[in-house]
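Duplicate of #3305? Posting structure anyway:
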């Protein structure tokens, strides 16, 4: 099976994608998306729908997220003092996050919270 890309997600016609589909684009474990969506949805960066143990993601909102509305841009700097940049990929991350949602690596900025 080939890995989904953002272009593949854009070409889909369905309104909702799964954590497994989103994780392929982000490059992380789908379980990470499920856990964060249930535990602390604001940290996820895009909206998620939780129905019992199921997690679903609005496709268009995910596309907007991936197109950089929350992306860290080195030339702009970080304006929110609660935010930092991932040491590996440069994405904007909350200082309390242990792992980057983009690359999945430790951020090096966590204050001991799960992420």
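Output from current build:
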């Amino acid at each position: 099976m080939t890995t989904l890309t953002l272009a593949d997600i854009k070409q889909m016609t369905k309104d909702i994608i799964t954590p497994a589909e989103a994780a392929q684009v982000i490059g992380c474990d789908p379980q990470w998306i499920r856990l964060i969506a249930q535990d602390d949805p604001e940290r996820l960066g895009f909206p998620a729908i939780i129905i019992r143990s199921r997690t679903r993601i609005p496709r268009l909102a995910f596309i907007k997220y991936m197109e950089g509305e929350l992306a860290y841009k080195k030339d702009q700097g970080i304006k929110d003092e609660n935010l930092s940049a991932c040491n590996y990929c440069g994405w904007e991350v909350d200082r309390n996050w242990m792992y980057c949602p983009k690359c999945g690596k430790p951020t090096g900025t966590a204050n001991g919270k799960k992420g």
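Confirmed duplicate; merging threads. Confidence is low (pLDDT under 50) at residues 71-78. The two ends are 28 Å apart (CA to CA).
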